[in-house]
Design brief:
about 475 residues; Thrombin, subunit H; Pdz3 Domain; 4 domains; 7-stranded antiparallel beta sheet; 6-stranded antiparallel beta barrel; 12 helices; hydrolase; Serine protease
Length: about 475
């Protein structure tokens, strides 16, 4: 009995001693969550989309014949955001709220508000929505700075992963300046913050905070679990703040314009041109009067750096330029056959360049909306720089596809370039909007039609019977 008593006493003393370790300590993360948490919101989105089915046996036509149009499919999604203004303005991701028919914002205190989409940008994946405070003193977050982040700093993510409201995860800044290919393969996300703080679906649009409770980024992307884990990415808050005023005032961003035609340096290109670098964005031509020409950029220069970012290909350069509004002064590092030169450029405005490129065009010739459910326009200098289209490339660019039209079911989408059109085997080149309009208006009921389409270096044919 005495032995049992001794064992019990020893166990009790051990537990008591463990309880004294770090007594009274409180993690600074607790204070961050208390300060910033109330301004982090859950965003529920309702939208509609067309049913997309594989229909090799013509069931879709059968359904339409006897039952009418296939009904829209209602879809819902969840994301995160944070209030940064007492007026009720909220930052989130464009992919969270794009195309939403209804947006509902839920607060930590249990209150819910209908939200209005103010504007955003798909390339940057930032958006602003707004709720009406209606006299309520809304909580807000403090915005920090992201341009001086150091690897190893604490990083705290708050959001709604898988709809689990107000989840907090902790990690560090594991890298900065990351260039990440977009899921659809169309371009890259530029200058992202990488963190090992757990970010999952539903965290998108939520804040990434430093240990002082300041927002340093907007959580936006994750690595597929099939590829890796503990890798999340956030848009630097400095990038978002460069465009927030434009989004609130106009609903969109004013894109910057460098004024170059470019290609990616490959081994073959490097050897054939005698370049002294194995990667970078090769300048194939410079637009007269552009920001690039004024800065001193020349054909066959290779841009290897843009501000603090390393540039290894043309997609990274295009994405880096889009991180800045028109009028920004930026440093560009070039390699000119082995000589490293740093140039200063004041970025122009894409809208101004587009207007000045075709002053004689009428408004009708610039954009044409056809009965097939597709709107096209001329290829502008903006498009050539953004999509990497050479100056001699001809066609019309798709601006919008109507979900109710024929073209929607062909897989043609915004920014595709239509270069040729065939009607019953008679092929015609498409060099401008007038060509496209003239040929489309010839299409009659029962005709077999094919569009020859260019997308991100790939050409394909989309065909249908009218």
């Amino acid at each position: 009995m005495r032995k049992v008593l001794v064992v019990v006493v020893v166990v009790l003393l051990s537990v008591a001693s463990l309880a004294l370790v770090n007594e009274g300590y409180e993690s600074p993360v607790v204070n961050v969550v208390q300060a910033a948490g109330p301004a982090v919101v859950k965003i529920d989105v309702e939208a509609t989309r067309k049913y997309s089915i594989t229909d090799p046996f013509g069931f879709e036509d059968f359904f339409r014949r006897f039952f009418g149009e296939i009904p829209d499919q209602k879809v819902s999604g969840v994301g995160s955001g944070f209030i940064f203004s007492k007026d009720g303005y909220i930052f989130t991701n464009e992919h969270v709220v794009s195309g939403a028919k209804k947006i509902t914002v839920s607060m930590l205190d249990g209150n819910s508000y209908p939200a209005k989409y103010i504007g955003g940008d798909a390339e940057l994946d930032i958006a602003v929505i707004k709720i009406d405070p209606d006299g309520i003193d809304l909580p807000t977050v403090e915005l920090g700075k992201s341009d001086s982040l150091r690897i190893g700093e604490w990083a705290i993510a708050i959001g709604n992963p898988f709809g689990l409201k107000h989840t907090v995860t902790l990690g560090v800044i594991s890298a900065v300046g990351r260039q990440l290919p977009k899921p659809d393969g169309n371009g890259v996300y530029s200058n992202l913050i990488q963190t090992d703080a757990a970010i999952n679906p539903g965290n998108s649009g939520g804040p990434l905070l430093n240990i002082h409770g300041q927002v340093i980024g907007i959580n936006t992307a994750i690595i597929s679990p099939d590829v890796g884990t503990s890798l999340g990415f956030a848009i630097p808050i400095d990038v978002a703040m460069r465009f927030v005023d434009s989004i609130i005032e106009t609903g969109s961003v004013q894109r910057a314009y460098l004024g170059v035609y470019m290609d990616t340096v490959t081994e073959a290109i490097s050897r054939s041109l005698g370049l002294k670098v194995e990667s970078g964005a090769l300048i194939t031509d410079v637009v007269p009067g552009s920001a690039a020409e004024k800065a001193g950029v020349k054909p066959q220069d290779v841009i290897i750096g843009f501000e603090n970012l390393e540039i290894t290909n043309s997609s990274e350069l295009r994405a880096a330029v889009l991180n800045y509004p028109a009028g920004s002064e930026v440093k560009i590092t070039i390699d000119r056959f082995g000589e490293r030169i740093v140039l200063t450029a004041v970025l122009g405005s894409l809208s101004q360049e587009s207007e000045s490129s075709s002053p004689d065009d009428t408004e009708e010739s610039k954009t044409f909306e056809s009965s097939l459910g597709v709107s096209v326009s001329e290829i502008t200098p903006e498009d050539r720089e953004r999509l990497g289209l050479p100056s001699e490339f001809r066609g019309v660019i798709v601006r919008k596809v109507d979900s109710e039209g024929i073209v929607y079911r062909l897989g043609i989408s915004k920014d595709d370039v239509i270069t040729r059109l065939s009607i019953n085997g008679n092929q015609e080149p498409i060099e401008n909007v007038n060509d496209f309009k003239a040929h489309v208006e010839k299409i009659k009921k029962g005709d077999y039609v094919a569009f020859f389409v260019y997308r991100s270096g790939v050409r394909f044919v989309a065909s249908f019977q009218f």
